[in-house]
Structure prediction request, 331 residues.
Amino acid sequence: MNIFILTITFFIFFNIIIFIFSEKLIKIFNTYDDPDSQRKFHKKRTSLLGGTIILINCLFFFIINLFFFKNTEYDYSFLSTFIIGSTFFYFLGLYDDKKNLNYNYKFFIELIIIIFLIFINKEIIIDKIYLDFFNYEINLGKFSYIFTILCFLIFLNAFNMLDGINLQAGLYSLSIFIYLLILSDKHLLYFILIIALLPFLVLNYKSRVFLGDNGTLLLGFVISYLVIMTAKETNYLILTADKILVLMMLPGLELIRLFIIRLRLKRHPFSPDRMHIHHIFIKKYGIKKTIIYIQLLSVIPIILMNFITNYTFLIILLNTLTYIYLTLDEK
Prediction:
């Protein structure tokens, strides 16, 4: 049997086993999110096993690649940075889940991890920006390091803010991985990430498992890292800067809006509240429609940019105006 098919088959069965024995894993993991009757909608304490499911799959992929996929597109520097970053951010999130880290400390640790990853692998540095809509290229030069750090920090925290109700962050991640699967030649990695998301999505739908900060920081890093590396594979000409904006638009808009509101109210920009887009939508439409509408806001622009390839800027503008209209009446 082809080693590619064999590996996919292994991960399918592995994740079926995870799903079957999820209750036992939940008890072993022993980290929960408790309802507080203020911001959290769930009715009972729920496991934060989500990130662990994703990380275990990533670690198994790394081990299998070392032994069976030598001399392939998965070079050691690519995979080692991927695994080190995923592991660091997972444990940072896990510690935050257990100890509720101070926002400033958490942000500082994120910064240190990113600087360390850049130090061990210069390949992740974004050295230029290509805007397809304007056919314009910007060489970042000495600002490459700062720009790369900012990109990681912004998306990590934007993705963390996007997570709030069942399926929201998981389905968004799934759409990103499917899109990158189409663009990149690293098909096996994306298949495994998609397979790893499936048991989590089912358990999350049933309110048995949440991502937690361990999952949002892990997935936030994975998405950021893979988007950068996919863009660099084709010298930024296929996955261009404006297409990346479309991919990461919803978390980005959410972060900007919440920052503006919180700063205006003289609160910490990372402080929790009930002003997220899912809070607004639930009041208007209820929980089921909220899940659908939020996914449409993220998926439709991605679909459109594949059919209207030369008008990504107009897609960004239209989606931004739609987002503003849907959240404008809330303070």
